[in-house]
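Q: what sequence does this backbone want?
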């Protein structure tokens, strides 16, 4: 018998040795097909010990990847400019945030509370991998406690300007660290229309920081020349359409970036300005593209932005982003509501998730998948109800939600949590 790989718990075993039969497998540039997907020892395999039949009614995707979030900042309502106005650059927004009732209310929660809520924001939208855009000295201890993978291997700067927040050890040191370790170097870039923002790409180029390690976020002030330089360098861009439009009423030149061959990904930004979660961001960004250009952004292109493209931007393409044998078993199973599996993903919501697997371990799913937990609810898992379905989930998000409501002082509703926790 093949060796079992599992997490021990008094209520059952969480298996990493199973087979999902008769699903519509959607991975990378391969043509989607009805097939089976095996998992063994935390990676994709050609077989598995415990079998669950999807009966041709589910689409199986790589776990989604959110290339830009600020996990401490995921709180509602969003804070933005006054009605009829928009920001010219980001510092005035930061001032508005710190003076807002949202920030005052958010301050009643601990950092641990906010990060835990953000972990579930990711999980309940099918995200298995996310970047928390803060320095590791702020998040290194807390990220491993989340129910999803928040990467720790990255270099970063807040942005390349005189008024950035001086995160990390300085742009030069952080970039060199990324290069030496084959990590991404992640920074906000050209987030505004002041002189420094408009000259940000030239600054990066002049200081020899512009290369294929770079993952640039927002990029709303890029010129056509900037786009050519980014493409030639092999850098990636994280598109955060909702946040851009909310704050600035403009987004990056997304069609020109794509036509130039730039590796484009999608990020949510924090919910302080951004969308509720990655599934909502996907839908918004497609609608935005249609509004801007009068044409469709293909659903397959969007799928790649939140899977293979994002893995490449994170320098993780050898590990995740596709469902190839030997890759980490990061898997999202969605109801098949559309015959086109790419359109199916783009139209999906939190209520369409049937199963989410992180490195072969089911972390969220309908109770019919409890066979993957030795038929029982593991000790460190709980059950919730989502859209009338009984679901198991790693940890206790309902207890977290209740505790946060007590600290806030009223029945706070967070739109990225798709359930009511009860009393």
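A:
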């Amino acid at each position: 018998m093949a060796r079992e790989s599992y997490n021990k718990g008094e209520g059952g075993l969480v298996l990493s040795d199973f087979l999902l039969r008769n699903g519509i497998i959607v991975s990378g540039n391969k043509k989607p097909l009805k097939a089976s997907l095996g998992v063994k020892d935390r990676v994709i395999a050609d077989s598995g010990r415990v079998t669950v039949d999807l009966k041709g009614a589910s689409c199986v995707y790589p776990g989604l990847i959110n290339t830009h979030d600020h996990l401490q900042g995921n709180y509602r309502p969003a804070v933005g400019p006054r009605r009829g106005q928009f920001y010219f650059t980001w510092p005035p927004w930061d001032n508005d945030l710190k003076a807002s009732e949202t920030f005052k209310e958010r301050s009643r929660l601990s950092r641990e509370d906010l990060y835990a809520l953000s972990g579930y924001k990711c999980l309940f939208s099918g995200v298995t991998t996310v970047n928390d855009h803060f320095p590791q000295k702020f998040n290194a201890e807390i990220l491993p406690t989340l129910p999803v993978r928040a990467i720790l291997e990255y270099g970063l700067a807040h942005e390349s300007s005189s008024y950035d927040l001086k995160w990390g050890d300085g742009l030069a040191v952080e970039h060199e660290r990324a290069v030496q370790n084959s990590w991404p170097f992640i920074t906000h870039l050209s987030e505004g229309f002041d002189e420094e923002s408009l000259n940000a790409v030239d600054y990066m180029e002049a200081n020899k920081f512009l290369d294929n390690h770079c993952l640039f976020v927002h990029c709303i002030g890029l010129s056509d020349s900037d786009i050519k330089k980014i493409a030639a360098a092999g850098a990636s861009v994280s598109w955060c359409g909702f946040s851009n439009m909310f704050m600035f009423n403009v987004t990056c030149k997304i069609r020109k970036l794509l036509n130039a061959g730039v590796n484009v990904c999608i990020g949510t930004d924090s919910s302080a300005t951004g969308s509720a979660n990655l599934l909502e961001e996907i839908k918004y960004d497609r609608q935005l593209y249609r509004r801007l250009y009068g044409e469709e952004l293909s659903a397959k292109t969007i799928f790649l932005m939140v899977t293979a493209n994002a893995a490449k931007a994170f320098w993780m393409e050898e590990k995740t982003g596709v469902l190839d044998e030997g890759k980490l078993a990061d898997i999202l199973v969605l109801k098949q509501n559309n015959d086109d599996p790419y359109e199916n993903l783009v139209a999906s919501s939190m209520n369409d998730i049937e199963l989410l697997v992180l490195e072969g371990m089911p972390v969220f799913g309908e109770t019919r998948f409890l066979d993957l937990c030795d038929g029982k609810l593991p000790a460190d898992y709980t059950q919730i109800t989502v859209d009338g379905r009984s679901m198991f989930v790693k940890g206790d998000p309902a207890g977290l939600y209740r505790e946060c409501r007590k600290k806030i002082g009223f029945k706070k509703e967070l739109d990225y949590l798709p359930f009511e926790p009860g009393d």
